[in-house]
Predict the 3D structure of the following.
Amino acid sequence: MSKSGNRPINPLSGARVTVNLSALADNWSYLNAESGAAECAAVVKADSYGTGVEPTVVALQQAGCNTFFVALPEEGVAVRRVSPNAVIYVLNGLFPGVESLLASAQLRPVLSSLDEVRDWASYCSDTGDRLPAALHAETGINRLGMRREDLEYLAAQDDLLGAFAPTLLMGHLACADEPDHPMNAQQLAEFEAIRRAYPGLPCSLANSSGIFLGEAYRFDLVRPGIALFGGNPTPGNPNPMKTVAYLDARVMQVRTVPAGETVGYGANRTLKRETRLAVIAAGYADGYKRMASNTDSQTGGVAYHKGQAVPLLGRVSMDQITLDATDSPDLQRGSLIELLGDHAIVDDVAKACGTISYEILTNLGHRYERVYIDRHSVVD
Ligand SMILES: *Cc1c(COP(=O)(O)O)cnc(C)c1O
């Protein structure tokens, strides 16, 4: 059961997401301390990794965070609504025609091509405002960004660079969660080479895991996302982050079924013993991964009741999941089942579905009741 699990769930809802804003604030403070002299920003794209952008940005701000990164202009507008003074960067850069919207919400595009640089420079020249923007360096991930030759060319274009106000040079690591991967040092070397063309411009390379690669990777500003929301930035080592997102689903029905029968669509999970089934009100329409299905050929996921493991049984369906409650005698109609939390750890749940914590959190569905708790409302 989650930290808010002894509150009654909204009778209209099948399941509840509880976001612990104090844990989020503590996670930011921890990463800020780990970042030494570098500024610690917060990446809040995709609705703050599925946890809800507005309350989380307010909590992060109260913790001391002043710089936010989002993917889309619209996400930046949402952050601006609750954060009149923060610095907000839009990672996906400058979509054609979006210049005046960015300017009016004081959003900074992360410019990822010479075309984007030219568009932003010309908008700034036309309006007479030298508006801020980041320059995105491509150092090996081959996603967005300008390669070294483009950035070295740009560094000599006083007309372009003088038209706007470059405020940050950033790159992005492909393998930061694998500290021994040779790509990390290669990308660092490429980033170091590029930044020589931009003396004095603040630099940023590290995501959550990048912070833990050492001081050389931290530069002036770090950009954690997943670690703020409880994902382990140091896979293979204990998770230093606190749990932020809890997911609890209600039990709708408990029933005992004889051995030999099957459970769920496809009839591909045969009961080996007489089994007490519990059916809960969540499914893949809520973003709970169908890959967590437990079949005769696949182990599948695990939920928890009062800290005790309750395995999934059969396929995850759209609106229901069936559990094996045989060994949980006090689980009954109305009980709450932890699908994410201090026992159903997001990284473990992700592993059971063959994915990563990011996908689990960003898929948290829209039908869930959502509750935000902080130090004053936490009930253990
Ligand atoms: C998503 C993202 C981040 C945050 O990454 P995490 O691994 O979640 O910490 C940082 N920088 C860029 C460019 C990103 O796209």
